[in-house]
Amino acid sequence: MKRPTQLIAGAALALAACVAMAAPGTMEGIEKQPVNVSAIAMFVVFVLSTLGITYWAANKTKSTADFYTAGGGITGFQNGLAIAGDYMSAATLLGLSSLIYAKGFDGFIYTISFFVGWPIILFLMAERLRNLGKFTFADIASYRLDQGKIRTFAAFGSLTVVCFYLIVQMVGAGQLIQLLFGLEYNYAVVIVGILMMVYVTFGGMVATTWVQIIKAVLLLGGGTLLMLLAFSQFGFSFEKLFSTAISVHKDGAKIMGPGSLMANPVSAVSLSLGLLFGTAGLPHIMMRFFTVPNAKEARKSVFYATGFIGFFFLVVAVLGISAVVIVGQDPQFFEGGKVGGKIIGGGNMPVMHLAKAVGGDIFLGFLSAVAFATILAVVSGLALAGASAISHDIYARVIKKGTADARDEMRMSKFASVGIGIVAILMGILFKDQNIAFLVALTFGVAASVNFPVLILSMYWKGLTTRGALWGGIAGLVTAVGLVILSPAVWVKVMGNKDAIFPYDHPALFSMSAAFLVTWLMSVTDKSAQAKREAEAFEEQYIRAQTGLGAASASAH
User: Domain spanning 2-547 has what CATH number?
Assistant: First the structure.
């Protein structure tokens, strides 16, 4: 294990060098901040701890099953925490709290839409995902369909979603570290990228899982403590909290009712559909169901994850409303000391300022390190999902037709991890000024339109054919991305055109409908001999989905 040791040590040295370069931020539009020593100290402690976990995991990772799924040896409770750690990203802590801070009830509706997708996964998908899959989403989608065509499509669909989601995390990391550590944005993005490559390349799913578990515990603990500290200033009275927030917010009582987010019902429904079904189409979330020993543990993991995520979303809601009063009235958190003006660090930072207001620099340092850990855990999961799509689906199954040995596949996975890390760094730098909340909604919309229709129909509809899945998936992908480009958010705000061709920001209502319609139409009109064989194979798939007979077994760690 000489090589992992050397490279992990190299990553630690790179980290030390970058921290040594920490200086007041230089990102345009953000006021320079002093170096936060406590934040940097906690950040370094966390990173060194996780590098230690990666070294331990590298010694445990002996096979492709270990690398992709931790050998299926993770318990339901551990996996529930890891899923929560995977799902509660930078957008949750920073984005949703700032949305509630700015929009009130509108932000809470947004939060609920993120959450309600989990019962669908629990009741319709978790058990079948574990019984039918091995390493990736494509294993399920291609179970009785043409392996080459469907795996290629599924891999590109997964990579599209992974890339969109990586942008969100890298932008969040850059902005957070610039504000709190005084480190220049580009350096911050490079650090995240390097650490992600080290975790995934050497530790695989074992390292990623334990980083996610630790991060979930820290985030739940830190978020709850911050909520209690903030809530205590209102005597733990919701009535006092909400009445004070109404009295000081520029929109007054309007923040307690639906506002601009719900003004257009079509846009609201489209956004909700994307968030609702997009969860079930995220490759890094689906991949987590292959890390447990059996379907029972898969159900357990969703149950635990739903509890942790639901609780944290309620915490975030209280944090957002508390920030309206505590942060929104304090001149030190606004550029030039002008209350109601531009908030220091940008619109995603109210929760961080709240941490400083109620807990001082030490607590701010702790929460910033936790937020960074959050981003690190999510990007590791995303990178692993992307790497597995390239190595397992495209390389091993399509290019090598199943003849690649485990060593070659592992080598390709590691090359893919490094490649995805480099792409993530470049995209993080390129998209540094984009709105995080919008990018998240876009990601979920694409996932709901590309991955979800093919996945759910492959498990539940006997009539699905290769032709239907392929054309339906392509229709979903092209429609989702095309409508986003033609929407006001891109066509007007980014490209500078006067009027948008497509009047809504969120495409899911239209792109999901297109995906399901095209899939159905192309399947029912397919009368080929292959389509007949695929329909006949459904019974065997159904038996395995229900019983788990023939599913991959677990290995202990």
Answer: 1.20.1730.10
